[in-house]
Amino acid sequence: MANFKKGQMLFEDQYKWRRDKGDGPYIGKIDRDRLDRDEGYEVLDFANASLIDTASLESLHKFERLIKRVPSNEVMKVKILDFIKSNW
């Protein structure tokens, strides 16, 4: 597991750093399975959980760029990760 910080993110200024207006409190499995790609803290957590602890900053940036290429209707983390792996 990587340990990147907010300030290291390529698109830091493009993310929201608060929950979206319609985003309720954390409710368990559904929040573990889905990714809101607009919320920086979710993307950062997903990147840290998906990348190895020795991943470079360039890997984080590549991960972010690939997330932006995932079809917008895909919200499931497992599918997003499959897309990233197949396009790495």
Q: Could you walk me through the main structural features you see in this protein, from its secondary elements to its overall organization?
A:
With 88 residues, this protein is an all-alpha fold. The chain contains four helices and no strands. It is globular and about 30 Å long. The mean pLDDT is 90.
List the SSEs and their pairings.
Blueprint: H1 29-33, H2 40-50, H3 57-69, H4 77-87
Give a summary of the structure in a few sentences:
By secondary structure, the chain is an all-alpha fold. The protein contains four helices and no strands. The protein starts with 28 loop residues before the first helix and ends with a helix.
Biggest β-sheet description: none
The secondary-structure element order is HHHH
- How helical, in percent, are the residues? 40-55%
The value of Rg in angstroms is 12 Å
Percent of sequence in beta strands: under 5%
Give me some keywords for this one.
single chain, 88 residues, mainly alpha, 4 helices
